[in-house]
Amino acid sequence: xxxxxxxxxxxxxxxxxxxxxxxxxxxxxxxxAMHWVRQAPGKGLEWVALIWNDGxxxxxxxxVKGRFKISRDSxxxxxxxxxxxxxxxDTAIYYCARDAGGSSPDYWGxxxxxxxxx
Amino acid sequence: VVMTQSPLSLTxxxxxxxxxxxxxxxxxEYEGSDYLTWLHQRPGQSxxxxxxxxxxxxxxxxxxxxxxxxxxxxxxTINRVEAEDVGVYYCLQGRHWPLTFGPGTxxxx
Lengths: 118, 109
Fold this sequence. Notes:
Chain A is mostly beta strands and 118 residues long. Chain A is built from no helices and eleven strands. The radius of gyration of chain A is 13 Å and the shape is globular. Chain B is an all-beta fold and 109 residues long.
């Protein structure tokens, strides 16, 4: 069955960097685009980034553009999110999700929590 | 693209119908399809996709859920609400990058 598992979360200080990973199984990773979506405590969902299956196209939310970088390692079935210059308002649960086509995420991981605090 | 939902909070009665509206600031149509997704999130859980391209229900989603609309106006309808339907419902537009979610509609019994 399709599974996605995020890791790399934790408590970090403002201005620092962190890299999240999302290991997937149960489907052919190289055939699917992938998303990162986040959810601040008690708030709604916020789309963060998308990478096409072959990595040729990437898009970011304005709130993270220039600070975050999405990438993928298809042989390792792993999606990454490199986050730099972290801010308090980056505090959130970060989910990875598979894109089923048409920029529509169908399967989601359980999320990993990032807390940015001094 | 700005996505709006109404209402933001909805109190429903078991067995009764319920509907949620989602509007986009730009048309979500592209080559004959509208790229509008509905997701449901129960407390403490990850989101679950219910419907894609306005009206296509995902496998395993009860047929009491249906989606309709086109262009900029969309609706999620629950035919007869069940207790497990509580939570927050989000619409998501996939037509324009960056993608954007609606603010969510919280459904309580």
